[in-house]
Amino acid sequence: MAAHRKFTFENPEDSYWNSNDLIDVPFSNSPTINATATREALDDLFESKLRFDSDDGWSNTGSESPSTGGNQIKQNLRNRIRDLPKTVCAPSHPVSESNQSPDRRFSSRTGAVHWDSISPFVSDGSAESLPSNSTAQLDYSRLKSEHRKLQKHLEQVRLERYRAADPQLTIRRLLRNDSVSLDLYRSKKEKLDLLDAALESCDGNVIIAVVLALERSLETSIFLDILKQKPVAACHYVAYLKDTKNFDQLTSTLLALNRTEEVALVLYSVACKKQPNERIAHLKKCLNVCTAVPSLEAFSKSVNEYINLLERQIVIEDADEALIKDDKDGKNKIFQQYPKTITLIGRPVLTTLYYSCLYHFDLPVNAYASPLSIKECFNITEKQYAWMAISALTSLKRWNDIERVLMSKKLLGGVKIHCPFAWRHLFTIISRDERPPKEILCKLLRAVPDISERQCLANQFPEASEITIECLVAQKDRVALSAFLAKLTPHTIEAYKALNALNNVHNHRLRRINKTNHECDVVGQFSLTIFILLIQPKGDT
């Protein structure tokens, strides 16, 4: 292929006169020479564009990319060429393709393909498509001026590619999801201006992108000072750290922002996700933070109780596991009857209380696994303790112990059965698996103070018919008692009791009637005597 020298407007015919190719074209054909020079000038422009495209380190964010500049150059050239007038000039000596060298023919064809994509006003040296001499000179001058302008523009682009663009322009590009290099903003003022522009955009993704760029390029102290001055950016950064679960950085950032309450909550949430053995250490770290804040007094108390609960659970779990391993003779039937399926460590305090009532109800109060010890240590109410204890004792069928749990002292020194929660819940719990014995059931039903509620609860248990009869008798409802007697099985204890109650009511009514009649007779006789005495004369007396 023929050697192609770089074209310059100072000597446009240089590439032609120094060419080694022989072309059978008259030297007096000035339009052909000018057209060829014009074509090579445009080729040189596109070669310059390729050189700019291949430069390393192109990262200018403030100006357009090289490809955009090249496209702009090409479009300008197309517009210029499109505006040129086309005149047809007949050639004096047509160029024969057979007289050209193979390289020359190849380059001519390549040039024709290249120019077809730009404008159809120039072909492979055909005289019909070449403009006149004056038009070619005018086009040549225009292209020379355009060439110089584009060269200056490209040089300016090359010089400004490492300069930071205007913050507003960069933010607009970020909003369009364009690739932008934020490392060009090097001074603190430039970074703050960029952050202010991001905050004005009110776009969370843009704000986070700028904040992370500042975090990478600034010292930690300076970065935290900026977050203190920009609370909106700080909120976005904290939310980002929570989403990415970067708890170490989140804790240090919140401490620097004096948001101690949030630090305590973050440390507590992190501690709850740890294994039980590691959880205590993290909870103590959280407790140290909470102690310094007066507003977190209640929270620090809860954290301290949680630490005590975990320590107690670890001790109870280790002791029970050792007891199960050493129990080869089966002396501890409770673990055989109700085998452990899950670990106690990490369970809530009420679950721990239920566990202690189920496996260690008889332990003294000074024992670590004693239910009473857990009740006192964690301030469990009577209602909570009674509920858990009765639930566990019902599974063990320890009915007498249930009665002892419900015992309470009277003001005058006696004892009575008292349920700290609703009585209906009590009978639901004790009848969940199977019905308690009749004696215990009737004893608990008689402890219900309200007669109507007692009757309603007694109706749920057929074996407690005598309690229903007692309620009907206490209410003096003879009709309801007669109807209830009709439902009972004849010749049973409950039937005889209901019948005796009805007879006693009838006899009591007869006695009351006779007593009333007798009283009326006495009063009548006394009144008659007084009347007679009043109407008799005094002499007769």
Automatic annotation (TrEMBL):
Keyword annotations from UniProtKB, A to Z: Cytoplasmic vesicle, Endosome
Xref: Gene3D superfamilies: Vps16, C-terminal region (1.10.150.780)
GO biological process: intracellular protein transport; vacuolar transport
Residue ranges of domain Vps16 C-terminal in the record: 184-318
Compartment annotation: Cytoplasmic vesicle; Early endosome; Late endosome
Keyword 4Fe-4S carried by entry: no
Cellular component GO terms, alphabetical: early endosome; late endosome; vesicle tethering complex
Protein name in UniProt: Vps16_C domain-containing protein
Organism: Loa loa (Eye worm)
